[in-house]
Write the structure tokens for this entry.
Amino acid sequence: MSTARATTVGAEPILLPPTGLRASLRRIGALVKRYMYLLRSSGVRLVELIYWPFLQMLTWGFLQKYLAGTTSPLAQAAGVLIGSMLLWDILFRSNIGFSTTFIEEMWSRNLGNLLTSPLRPYELVAALSLWSVIRLGVSMVPVAAAAYFIFGFNLLDLGLPLVAFFAILVLTSWSLGLIAAGVILRYGLGAEELAWSLAFLLLPLCCVYYPVSVLPDWLKPVALALPPTHVFEGMRSILLHGTFDPTELWWAVSLNAVYLVVGYVTFSRFLVSARVNGTLLQLSE
């Protein structure tokens, strides 16, 4: 239960913001509701959420269809391409949802207002994380359904591991979003390109469309140190061989725990620095 507290400065009482889990959840819910109203008010934003993943799904789906109709050795792996694309888009769209929502608060010069309100930094992070999952659902559910009806690819064929894959990719996207948000706080909006490019930096290292075995030996440890690599290796194992190695899952979960801590510490330290230096209200290029 949350109650407002009062204190006094001289003879004047000052009402302190309510504390407790209930009050915290209300603040997080209010921020998510604000983002929902912004999305509802702009049809262009809603269309954009679905447009890009749908376009990629069509591109890789037609390539898969072509390869499946040839005698090439690649035909066996053709069905993996669209699955790889859909899983990669979970990571990318969740990361974009987190990062761009944070950047929009800076574009509108609203971040300083939020952080001088009773809203705690961890509540802001929680709201951004929750909103990224909601945006992901809006964009990926229709695209996954279209992949089934157009190309006959059912993402649910991955079975229960799909839930774990989804969670791992979303957690990784939050780590990337926290790091990008921290760097933007430190260097201003001139560093906003990092929000879009950081995930693409991982694309060749996470072995989205090919196995780890094709990488040079010196690069394999780098790839295996990234949680998404284990997701895509697990997906290929299920689709190509019908087997699932839970070891890949536990590696990904453990690595994600490390990266989430690193991401949150990075964000928190740069936020404290921005507050101390008084730059929250004058962040710019």
About this structure: The chain has ten helices and two strands. Strands lie at 5-9, 12-16. Residues 90-134+155-282 form one domain.
